[in-house]
Amino acid sequence: MTDEVGKICLDQTLRNALGIPFGLFPALKPELPLFLFPASRTCSATLRLFVASVFGLRFLAARSAPAAVADIEKGYVRIPDDLLSVIGALPADDVVVERPIAVGGPKLTAFRIISEKLSTAIASKGFLDDRRDRSGSGELAPPAKSSLLDRFRTASPPAHLPLNLRYPRTKDLLYDYRTFADAGLIEPEVAKSLAALEVTETDVPSIFMDRDARTKGINPDRPTDAADYLTPFMVRRSILSAGARDSLGTAFAVTISLIQFPLIFVANKAGISVCQWIAGVTVALVISLALMIARLRQQI
Q1: What integer pLDDT is reported at residue 137 of this predicted model?
Q2: Which of 9, 41, 62, 164 is the most buried (most CB within 10 A)?
């Protein structure tokens, strides 16, 4: 927040998630209107977030996209592998995806943050290239000239949705300077000059989820609240999943500690009481937990 009342500063991640082009700011006539609303979490979600912060927490902003046909109803989300390393996760780990949904009356002045835990699968380069090839600007292209034989083969128009509408190119939809010119925020001539520069705006990455994950928690009376191609999500790793993956090393450390502990008493030809056993197990668990926290935090 700035010192001046009514103004706010945004970092690049939030700016991209909101779809605000960087080149827009020097040409703005009035300030760009933004709205801030409260968003609450449940007590259990707040507790889970606190525990996750102890083990190391990093959020990644990503834009939702429909899952591939082969991924439908499988319960996982496709994420590029380089993004998994950013949040300290591995393929097949669980991640938590969350976003705010509107609650209350029709004015939509309050929101609740909902989360969904999903398993991960890699969005390979081939998968991303295929989506990129199928994507379009969201506008129907004019019909191309075709030969008589082509027109004969396609005597009737296709009944399915055109691919450029099914897989729209979010950059063209979000970072269109004409939209800001129509809203009176910049002059039409400035919008044309900015568009002519053809500067590629860096958008937040896409993750590919099933419809159930994109519609979770919405009010049935407001189906338009479902996530679409423009809806940003925040993604983080699941600490339970990361801890389970790291449990092999933890179990090894605990086992070694429990083996070494009675050997000390055997070497001294002394017996081991129940209290000493409990103390030894407790120390081993505390040390192993501390090592696990250190390893998981080091990944972030």
Answers
A1: 52
A2: 62
